[in-house]
Design brief:
single chain, mainly alpha, four-stranded antiparallel beta sheet, CSC1/OSCA1-like_7TM
Length: 780
């Protein structure tokens, strides 16, 4: 069986692995040649200069100050020095609040671990139930509730501690929810002016036989928001244009590569093989695996391809601008005040609740433009299809998970494959299998899952990167709960106790399963060490970005601008990081009463991850968007789910232990927890889904007092133009072409009946005459 020494050796392997990563990081980060890999955020902000441009030749690439090698862990205290308000200014509220998730883990589990090891562990250890049974168990299982005999009065200790742990967790969650809600409101009130504060996204604009979408949008908001409406930008279906622009960028990268290659060796012009039949390029850039095709001059080839794409881009742009069918029934509508935008985004605009649907617009860099071209009526069907697909993905994935769990138990393998016993019993092999292999195998199975879930979210039609990540995070959490948590317990139990199931009556099976649930603690300990400890240490090493940067730097970089573009700062990756954290919350809360030995491993993870990710947020990650901590209700809700699951599992476990007296008292715990969640949802969640009119009016009043001559229209005019329209051929330029700098010229309304929008376009009549005409018609 797995002994304490085996677990200790497995822990030593993972600790040494993590320590090796830290040593490698400490050495690599201080080398001048790696400066852009480990400090890209400061370069993006323009606050760090390139060390390769100064000093001696060798010193440009290798750090010759040997004193810096001595203090190789000085990055840890440095990561903790920046105060939270400064961190918010530096990295944004999303990043600062994300770090608070790790702090919550420490706040919850440090006191719980102290109580568990002071009270529960002695209660569990001072029994000999497992020794007298014929169950497969390890030394660690003696510290769990499995070592308590059936019907023992000691179960009252576990019952009382379940109440204590639940109340403490809820207290921490309430305190943090209140703090984060205040941080969000303060951030929204104090941050600088942004386009999304004045803009709403209008979807499902009803078709009108007499007016185009542009005319209809302007008329509708002139009538229904006459004092606050400012301007609008219709949504174009520019996905094909975007594909062409991206293709051209790739061609430019290849052209730059071959030009740099030629500049270094002008004695030989670079060439490549392509398939050309009747002057038509069939395959590019390298023929079939670079082995077949016609050899052509690489620079001439890519120059010609780029010119061809430029012509296609110009034609496609003209097609979009001049074709009314390219305009989607949606628009970004901007208002003169935040108050006007808040009213519009939070109210029903029409008698028909299915049209003129409004919501807060994402900030411009948060918009996922491809999905704006998806018809609104198809979203329900798309989400139904993805829900069915996710169901099958989640449950059929249990098959490989079951195989992985078979690696978590040495004795189970020896029973199934007795001829391997002599090899497996060797101490090094045994420790490696139990302490490293199961976690690695499970991570390999899960490595492609985030990309699959993100594709599912994109297919569903979410229109912002933040909402895509939140939906992917929700599905990733559900997947981990079903497969990693429940799947590990169920399949592991079936494999471990197969012999017992065969040789006992059916009425005894629930008792065996109940006893075996805490005995999976050994596997989860190894998973925490591999995924948590070594995984976090591997995150700070940034091995993949390091290799890619130097490959680009060697082959592609010609100018300082190229070197800047070669950096890959990355992001927090909320869609993968937060569900992983939630799995540790789930494990900690479930096993706090059942098998407290997991708690120290979880505490080490939260402490280590907090320091590492704080360092990465300060020096590396460059967030793609700012949602002002809009994800916090999801974080709170998932921890509540973990609390309720822990209570239900404890209830089921005690029912197999003949502790019937405690069951009625345990039933009240989930009820109280759900009531607590509803209280927090009603008290704090509105701050994350609505914008208080009082706050909006206050900020508008202050802004008018400070900037009475502010030209807000020029600030908002081009904020929500599709990126492919912001340059001649690509989105490198911040300037929009002339046809998008002004609102479309509207023609006088042709409608005989003014049922929806009685006002003519403001371009077809004066404002005063329009307002006089509006008095003759009722507003909808």
């Amino acid at each position: 069986m797995a002994t304490l020494s085996d677990i200790g050796l497995a822990a030593a392997i993972n600790i040494l692995t993590a320590f090796a990563f830290f040593i490698a990081f400490a050495i690599l980060r201080i080398q001048p040649v790696n400066d852009r890999v480990y400090f890209p955020k400061w370069y993006i902000k323009g606050l760090r200069s390139n060390p390769l441009s100064t000093g001696a030749f060798v010193g440009k690439f290798v750090n010759l100050d040997f004193r810096s090698y001595v203090n190789f862990l000085n990055w840890m205290p440095a990561a903790l020095q920046m105060p939270e308000p400064e961190l918010i200014d530096h990295a944004g509220l999303d990043s600062a609040v994300y770090l608070r998730i790790y702090l919550i883990g420490l706040k919850i589990f440090v006191p719980i671990a102290f109580l568990a090891f002071s009270i529960l562990v002695p209660v569990n250890w001072t029994n000999s139930t497992l020794e007298r049974s014929n169950l497969t168990y390890s030394d660690l299982d003696k510290l769990s509730i499995s070592n308590i005999p059936r019907g023992s009065r000691r179960f009252w200790t576990h019952l009382v501690m379940a109440y204590v742990f639940t109340f403490w967790t809820c207290n921490v969650l309430k305190t943090e929810y209140e703090i984060v809600a205040k941080m969000r409101l303060h951030f929204l009130a104090s941050e600088k002016r942004r386009p999304d504060q004045f803009t709403v996204l209008v979807r499902n604009v009803p078709p009108d036989p007499d007016e185009s979408v542009s005319e209809l949008v302007e008329h509708f908001f002139l009538v229904n928001h006459p004092s606050d409406y400012l301007t609008y930008q219709v949504v174009y279906n520019a996905n094909e244009l975007s594909n062409l622009v991206n293709k051209k960028k790739k061609m430019k990268n290849w052209l730059d590569y071959y030009q740099i290659k030629y500049s270094r060796n002008q004695s030989r012009k670079p060439s490549l093989k392509v398939f050309i039949v009747d002057d038509i390029l069939l395959k590019s850039p390298t023929g079939f695996l670079g082995l077949f095709g016609n050899r052509v001059d690489a620079i001439d080839h890519y120059t010609s391809e780029i010119e061809k794409l430029s012509r296609e881009i110009s034609l496609e742009r003209d097609k979009i601008v001049n074709n009314p069918k390219s305009i989607m029934p949606a628009a970004f509508v901007s208002f003169k005040t935040r108050w006007g935008a808040a009213v519009c985004s939070q109210t029903q605009q029409s008698r028909n609740p299915t049209v003129w649907l409004t919501e807060w617009a994402p900030e411009p860099r948060d918009v996922y433009w491809d999905n704006l071209a998806i018809p609104f009526v198809s979203l329900t069907l798309r989400r139904l299809v993805i829900a069915v697909a996710f169901f099958f993905l989640a449950f059929f994935f249990m098959i490989p998970i079951a195989f992985v769990q078979s690696l978590a138990n040495i004795e189970g393998i020896e029973k199934a494959l007795p001829f391997l016993k002599t090899i497996i019993e060797k101490k090094v092999v045994k420790s490696f299998i139990q302490g490293f292999l199961p976690g690695i195998a499970l991570k390999i199975f899960l490595i492609f899952l985030p990309s699959i879930l993100m594709l599912m979210s994109k297919f569903e039609g979410f229109i912002s990167l933040s909402s895509l990540e939140r939906r992917s995070a929700t599905r990733y959490y559900i997947f981990q709960f079903i497969n990693v948590f429940l799947g590990s317990i169920i399949t592991g139990t079936a494999f471990q106790q197969l012999d017992n199931f065969i040789h006992q009556s059916a009425t005894q099976i629930p008792k065996t399963v109940g006893v075996s649930i805490p005995m999976k603690a050994t596997f989860f300990i190894t998973y925490i060490m591999v995924d948590g400890w070594a995984g976090v240490a591997g995150e700070i090493l940034r091995l993949k970005p390091l290799i890619i940067y130097h490959l680009k730097n060697f082959f592609m970089v010609k100018t300082e601008k190229d070197r800047k573009e070669a950096m890959d700062p990355g992001t927090l990756g909320f869609n993968t990081g937060e569900p992983q954290i939630q799995l540790y919350f789930l494990l900690g809360l479930v096993y706090a009463v059942v098998s407290p030995i997991l708690l120290p491993f979880i505490i080490v993870f939260f402490a280590l991850a907090y320091v590492v990710y704080r360092h990465q947020i300060i020096n590396v990650y460059n967030q793609e968007y700012e949602s002002a901590a809009a994800f916090w209700p999801d974080v709170h809700g998932r921890i509540i789910v973990a609390v309720i699951v822990s209570q239900l599992l404890l209830m089921g476990l005690l029912s197999t232990k003949e502790a019937a007296q405690s069951t009625p008292l345990l039933i009240t715990l989930p009820v109280l927890t759900i009531w607590f969640h509803m209280f927090c949802k009603g008290r704090y969640e509105p701050a994350f889904v609505r914008y208080p009119l009082q706050e909006a009016m206050m900020k508008d009043t202050l802004e008018r007092a400070r900037e009475p001559n502010l030209n807000l229209k020029s600030f908002l005019q081009n904020a929500y133009i599709h990126p492919v329209f912001k340059g001649e051929d690509d989105s490198d330029s911040d300037e929009a072409p002339e046809e998008f700098e002004k609102e479309p010229d509207l023609v006088p309304t042709k409608r005989q009946s003014r049922r929806n929008t009685p006002l003519p376009s403001k371009h077809s009549g004066s404002a005063s005459s329009s307002m006089r005409e509006a008095q003759d018609y009722p507003l909808l």
